[in-house]
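#dry-run=false #mode=assembly
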Amino acid sequence: MKKTAPQHAPMDQFPVSNNNLVIGDLELTQVVERVGQTPFYAYDRQLLTQRVNDLRKAMPEGLKIHYAMKANPMPAIVQHMATITDGLDVASAGEMKVALDTIMAAEKISMAGPGKRPEELRQAIASHITINVESCNELEILANHSEQLGITANVAIRINPAFELKASGMKMGGGPKQFGIDEEQVPDVLKRIKVLNLHFKGFHIFSGSQNLKADSIIDAQQKSIALAIRLADFCPSPIEKLNIGGGYGIPYFPGDTCLDTDAVGEALNNTMQDAKKQIPSAEIIIELGRYLVGEAGIYVSRVIDKKISRGQVFLVCDGGLHHHLAASGNFGQVIRKNYPTVIGNKINSDNKETVNIVGPLCTPLDILADKIELPKAEIGDLVVIFQSGAYGITASPINFLTQPGATEILI
Ligand SMILES: *Cc1c(COP(=O)(O)O)cnc(C)c1O
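#status=ok
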């Protein structure tokens, strides 16, 4: 295990040339011409690769890094991620199709998510991917379809652990949850898997998302591995895969600090030594979405109007909440904060003013940035929202107000 270079702060990831933001070696105004429209999302392939390489240096040797596609399921991105990660985690048959279209082997693809429809389960069985079962009913239904199809399903149990991922942006484990099977019920479910003649692959323990605290992640990882070790005696066959989730966050707001992946890697390396002794057959996996793609993407919209209302300046853009719900503050945030934002074709201009940046929707929720100081912008200038590579277009209500869509490019 080697030390990584210092983590970059948000926004340093894109260089500047001629007062323009540069993405994929192209100045933003050129990118706009190439795309042929605003608004759009642009993702930088080199940054995706760099992120995975840096993470591998920080993480223990032998740890498998999977890409959780729901963060950004753009097929071009998934194709690229398939060449640099060790597996793909999908949350629907739709995502599974995109994953299976890549070079990734089916055995390295897994599907999680509550409420999998019967057709989805059949598709997953027929595709020979690993299915993370989320309930006792789902297990029985899966077994039925498996028998009908004459294909032994590969199943892992998603466990809803008794512990939580502390200081997490979104908790997905601990307490009563729609995700996974309660830890207490798992021994009985393991017996059932044996009776039902399914191929037992292992466990999936995902406890939360968007966490910047190394200590919390270390704690959850240690508890996840300890839990799997405790359950190993109940398993019908040796654990092949132990997916300990992810939750690695990225900084969005002032005061957010980058996750200390070196600290996480060091601790995980120690914990993995225990796992190697006690559950030697288990491949340890982390699954990350946001951390791998979030910082590599920007959202670009154009200023359509500039107006002053009772002394405040409003930049009205052709993009907004309908493409980027998260930047508007309506995707799970308790208190709205501005995403890092710049005027992409006037990066270094000294002439600044405080503005409100809004979208074209007839709702006061359509805010891209609230009272932010930026270089003075005019109609036609380009507003860029950073940290937009994850939970962007596919996490937004694109049909709201029947506005034109946004395109996406990977450069
Ligand atoms: C959403 C999700 C992820 C990805 O979470 P990120 O915070 O984007 O890393 C991983 N695994 C499961 C099961 C998920 O539901």
